[in-house]
Design goal:
By secondary structure, the chain is of the alpha+beta class. The protein has helices spanning 19-29, 53-70, 86-127, 149-157, 188-192, 210-261, 284-295, 335-344, 373-379, 390-405, 408-424, 428-451, 459-468, 485-514, 519-540, 552-555, 587-602, 612-618, 621-642, 661-667, 683-720, and strands spanning 7-15, 33-34, 45-46, 141-147, 162-170, 173-180, 198-201, 267-268, 272-280, 299-307, 317-318, 574-578, 583-586, 644-646, 652-654, 672-675.
Length: 745
Amino acid sequence: MLRPERMSKVSVTGSRGVMPTVIETIHGLNLVHLSDYDGSWEGFDNGNPIAGADQASEKLVTVRALQSTLDVSADDAEPGSIDEGWEAQLEEIRTRVNELDDRRGEITNELRQVDEKIDRVAPFAELGIDLDLLSGYESVDVVVVEGNVDAIDDAVGASDEIRAFETFTGGDVVAVVAAPTEDAGEAPIDDALVGVDVTRHEVPETEQSPEAYVAELEDEKQSLESRRDEIDTELEEIKQAEADFLLRVEEHLTMEVQQAEAPLQFATTDRAFVSEGWIPTGDYDRLVAALNDAVGDSVEIEELERADYDRHGAHAHTETDLEGTQPAADEDESPADADEQQQKAVTDGGSAVTMGDEPPTVQDNPGPAKPFEVLVQAVSMPKYSEFDPTIFLFLTFPLFFGFMIGDAGYGIIYMAIGGYMVTQVDNDAISSLGGVAVWAGLFTTIFGFVYGEIFGLHILGEIVWHQTLGIDWLPLNKGLEPAAADFALGWMVISVLAGILHLNIGYILDFFENLSHGFKDALFHSGSWILMLNGIWIWIFSTQGEAAKPDFLFETFASGGPFPIGFTGFSGLGLFTVPGLGFELTAPLLMFLIGLVMLIVSEPVEAVEALDVVVNVFSYTRMGAVLLAKAGMAFVVNLLFFGAYEDPNGEFHFLRTHEPSYVAEHYGEGAEVVFNGLMHSGTAALLGGLVILVLGHVVVLALGVTSAGLQAVRLEYVEFFNKFYEGGGENYEPFGTDRNHIEDY
């Protein structure tokens, strides 16, 4: 739907004694989007959480921590009930899990230390020297390093602090044994190796050989891993036994915390409370009935307003009589006290001082268009007071995407990927993107039949249109080959026409939104752009000044053009010749000038952007550019594998069923082989060509998303949305919780 679901502002006023029951009832309905009280009413303060909120929050944190430790997911449970002794059961689970998790953490830390020891001793195993021989000397200095052996040898030999040395090597590991001079420092070898890129290895404190030491460490590691596996098994058993319980308790505590903290959003006194919120208008009677059943006459429920749609200002108050709200009195509260409290909450004029928040937005789109809501929300949630552009994204985004890719093979893969995302991924946003991919893939497939292409090969045209249906004018050519170069420019013209239509829709939507300010405002603000857009482009496609305009504007739809509908430009649009200039003023130019004057009168600042009606439309030529680029990439991939030739008519043909020699035999000198193709160049070339064929089409498939997808999104967001859409709305989030795990509550 173009408009969000209609919302009503409701007020619930009552005594403090019934507030918990009211909160529980409203929470159970899961309908009311609560308004936040800002503390501005005289005599009213924000309420305090209901007793027990802190304890419930602590338990909820505990439950979620246990779920994280046990890796519990929502799929691990079936709906059920919670026993009365659930708190004791929760404490028992917490104790067991925390103890096991602590032990597991200790073992993991020990494993890390063992791995570090193994890593440290590995270089010594390369040397093949017992570890006790590498330390404990008083007259010589021993160092084990890893680096360039020659550089180490040269550096030690050049040291003035070393009178003699010996090196033992194993790979890049070097043990240096050096006899220092009498005046040497404490670490002569380290001093000698300053400036040499080496890694120092500390000698492990053990008398064992490196091999025996590593074997001992490996045994210790295996033992630790076995103990950790036992703990993991025990934790998994707890998960299997208690996942249902934990998910139900989490849901129960979530509802309890939500209800306990709800008064923070209320306006309260010592004896009364006022709660306001937004609700779908059609559910108002349901709210009233539920509260009457729960607390009877102890509360007063009032529909304060039904929000109207007004793009440029606050929502209007309509269809209800905005009277001041009277809090229901406690049994021991006198009418005078109640009246005094009411006076503090109303203006001098008698209208209620409501919590002045804007209505939240409920996007109300038909099922097929639902996935495209995620693309709208990626920009911003629609304001309640403006059109929801989702339906237009649904109608145009797949069309633009399919037009640019236009290949049945790629389209089928896009649909398959989208179908997987919809059915197999448990994430609303990704699932919605999957729905978008399905629609984009569907239109890519449809356009693939229009172009007669599957993975860049023109097979469908021959089979579907010519052989099966006997239609000669299909498929349409993308324009890569010399014989069909006019199609390349033709698709640019088609892109321009698509842009004109798309922008007209945006300006028309803006016109209808501005009608809330009166027809004159809508006519001057939005109608001016409509006149300028259509006036200038009708003139561009007119025969006035034809010699100065590109020929393809008039040849694209001419009888001999790529789209032969007989159009060669608008003519006969002249009105009169401007005196003294000899310039004929045509109807399209008059439209543009009238629109420009209207814009100057209504929005003088925007007049400097008048040429946007030309520039914005040119942006749509990127669709034709991507169409040619992607077709060219697929052509190159197929060219490398199959090879291709150009016939005497300038048409390209892949060598799918013929050898390159076929061209000379069949056409003689009138044709030219563009490339022989790897499939015709021997076994090794064939195998390499298959890799290129597959990877090449995978790359084209991926780039289709990043180029066609992003370009289509850009045209929607930048060119289209800017004409009528602002965004910045608040999502409708009703007070309540969907009960997925608790059967009765």
